[in-house]
Write a structure and sequence with these properties.
The protein is built from 8 helices and 6 strands, in the order αβααβααααβαβββ. The protein is an alpha+beta fold and about 250 residues long.
Length: about 250
């Protein structure tokens, strides 16, 4: 038996406020389209030491992942709360998880060769192998990275929460669960919003001002904002036909 999950049922089911039925939102992770929009996050980098254990871990993790339908509903609810004058004290809260796999992680999991070969070269070789093209040279070269980040990661688990205590408890829970099945974490990167400038990146830029609209998902349009096909973000869906062709899918 693994540790109990204190966050399994913290958000009630809510109806979406817009028609988003054209995309399988219950099968798309929540941070891909809806966006977690949480002030406290953690990124857990890990390596698979046992393919069987890794597959079991992913199987067990799946029910705890946040999907786009639930996250979009929560975000609608949060905006309505703010629009009606609600404050922080009674605002809705949630803790979300998403998972990202590297190409080498998919290989270790035993995905078939034809599937592995279908990914772009940039994804297959990884960032360290493309350091020169990316400008990661001199002080930013891979050999200068923090030692744990020089270890190739098979998976990154993202944990995001409205409260830092909830985030930290979820990280403890998830690292215990992964380690038990041979998924070894080697780096945890924590992130928190700036107390002095909420809504700004740590470089000082206002976050989200150029967020594109996604066809079949974004409920409202803002004049001048690009409207992109979902294939730009989700594999297997129509993508842009080319530069400037916002309404013609390929």
């Amino acid at each position: 038996m693994g540790p109990s999950d204190p966050f399994a049922s913290e958000l009630p089911e809510l109806a979406l406020s817009a028609d988003r039925s054209t995309l399988p939102l219950a099968e798309i992770q929540g941070n891909v389209l809806a966006g977690f929009n949480k002030p406290h996050v953690a990124y857990v980098f890990a390596t698979f030491t046992d393919p069987v254990g890794a597959r079991r871990w992913l199987h067990d993790l799946a029910p705890r992942l946040a999907w786009s339908d639930t996250v979009a509903t929560f975000n609608d609810r949060y905006r309505q709360h703010r629009a009606h004058g609600g404050g922080d004290r009674d605002a809705p809260i949630a803790t979300w998880r998403n998972v990202a796999l590297s190409w080498d992680g998919l290989r270790v999991l035993g995905r078939p060769d034809h599937e592995l070969a279908s990914f772009p070269e940039e994804f297959r070789v990884g960032m360290a192998a493309r350091a020169a093209q990316l400008g990661d040279v001199d002080a930013s070269a891979p050999e200068q990275w923090p030692v744990p980040l020089r270890t190739p990661s098979h998976v990154v688990l993202l944990v995001a929460a409205d409260r830092s205590d909830d985030r930290d408890a979820a990280v403890v829970y998830e690292t215990i669960a992964m380690n038990r099945l041979g998924v070894v974490d080697h780096w945890v990167q924590y992130g928190d919003t700036r107390a002095d400038e909420p809504g700004h990146e740590h470089f000082g830029y206002r976050d989200g001002i150029s967020q594109p609209a996604v066809r079949g998902f974004t409920a409202t349009q803002v004049p001048g904002r690009d409207q992109l096909w979902p294939g730009e973000f989700v594999l297997g869906h129509p993508g842009q036909a080319g530069a400037g062709a916002a309404l013609d899918a390929q």
